Amino acid sequence: MREQAFDNQETGNLVEQALGSDQLLKLTALLYLKEALVDQRFESCRELIDTAKNVGVSQGDISAVIADYLNAGNPGRQKTNRLRSN
């Protein structure tokens, strides 16, 4: 167990070195937003979006995460027919 914790920390350090701490923060913020959407914790999304913006995530990247969720056909999402036929 202790060895696994060391490996996870070492992996985290390697990722941070490869991406840089700013990029790592941005990716983490987007991942948290994606998880909240998938878990249908929509009440958390506003705060997660604000946090993402505060660490420098672009509106385009945030919109892409939301669009991916909407286009994925998630079971909690209600599909609506925007065009009504007579």
Going by helix content, strand content and strand pairing, the class is: mainly alpha
> Rough shape?
globular
Radius of gyration, whole Å: 17 Å
Can you give the helix content as a percent range?
Answer: 55-70%
Largest sheet: none
Q: Which runs of at least 5 residues are low in confidence (pLDDT < 50)?
A: none
Residue-averaged pLDDT: 80
Count all strands and give the number.
0
Fold topology:
Layout: H1 2-19, H2 21-38, H3 45-54, H4 59-71
Helix pairs in contact: 1-2, 2-3, 2-4
Task: Please describe what this structure looks like.
With about 90 residues, the protein is mostly helical. The protein has a domain at about 20-70. The chain contains four helices and no strands. The protein has helices at about 1-20, 20-40, 45-55, 60-70. Helix 1 packs across helix 2, helix 2 (about 20-40) runs antiparallel to helix 3 (about 45-55) and helix 2 runs parallel beside helix 4 (about 60-70).
